[in-house]
Design brief:
- The chain is built from eight helices and eleven strands.
- The protein starts with a helix and ends with a strand.
- The chain has a single domain, classed as Rossmann fold.
- By secondary structure, the protein is an alpha/beta fold.
- The mean pLDDT is 94.
- Strands 7-4-3-8-9-11-10 form a seven-stranded mixed beta sheet, with helices on both faces.
- α3 packs across α4 and α7 packs parallel to α8.
């Protein structure tokens, strides 16, 4: 499937499927491409259609949450592509927006040590089951790269450190919007445990990895937390899961 997908005319598919979608008056695919280029990031062929659509949904919830009062956070920043997309979407609505209230949280050392809950299973043709996990340290990016990508938004706060200890750097505040994109079970669990009790009424938490086959731990953490605490949520067609706090 991966080979067939990579040989398809992806640009034409994007034009047909997403060509008339805009965010803040900006063409969705053009904005997505510019944010990827300016953060020096790339998208594999399998995510060529999902990436701009997931960014669109994320920005829609962000723009909604800007009217609630409270701070905004992204846990798991990598090179800053999503954060840049959010800020540019906001700036198209609020020309003076310079990143106020947005907190970016990342170890900048890649993934932490995976837990047993992060193991994924693949059944081979002969019936055997192979258990795999993405290694510690994968997906690292220097904090300087994020600061450079966000240079037009000087009021964005960057918090290097490991979850949950890094949360001590955050202001004692209520939160309107949280994007959790940390891939693994434990940081997803710990992010929910920190932010959900501090979330404003109507506030949003989005998990990027809920539908990911590569990172099943994120879904396990999300499901466990929401079931234990009676938290309702929806799952978007992109695989993102979303909480709107009552």
């Amino acid at each position: 499937m991966i080979s067939a997908h990579s040989r398809a005319p992806l640009a034409r598919h994007r034009e047909i499927a997403l060509g008339e979608i805009s965010i803040g008056g900006q063409d969705l695919c053009d904005l997505s491409d510019r944010c990827l280029a300016d953060s020096e990031s790339k998208v594999p062929p399998l995510k060529a259609l999902r990436r701009p659509l997931a960014s669109y949904f994320l920005a829609r919830y962000f723009l909604y949450a800007m009217g609630l009062g409270g701070q905004f956070a992204e846990c798991g920043v990598f090179r800053g592509t999503s954060a840049l997309f959010l800020c540019r979407a906001a700036k198209s609505r609020i020309p003076a927006y310079a990143g106020e209230g947005l907190h970016l949280i990342d170890s900048f050392e890649g993934l932490s040590q995976p837990a047993d809950e992060d193991l994924s299973e693949t059944r081979e043709k002969e019936g055997s089951v192979v258990r795999t996990v993405v290694p510690q340290g994968t997906l690292s990016a220097p904090v300087e790269a994020v600061r450079h990508a966000m240079r037009d938004f000087p009021k964005v706060a960057v918090h290097p450190g490991w979850i949950p200890g890094v949360f001590r750097q955050l202001p004692d505040s209520e939160w309107a919007f949280v994007h959790i994109d940390v891939d693994l079970y434990e940081p997803t669990r710990d992010s929910l445990a920190y932010f959900y009790p501090r979330l404003n009424p109507g506030g949003v938490i989005v998990c990027d990895d809920y539908g990911s086959l590569l990172f099943p731990g994120a879904r396990r953490a999300w499901d466990e937390y929401c079931e234990k605490n009676g938290v309702p949520f929806v799952v978007l067609d992109t695989g993102q899961s979303v909480i709107l706090r009552a």
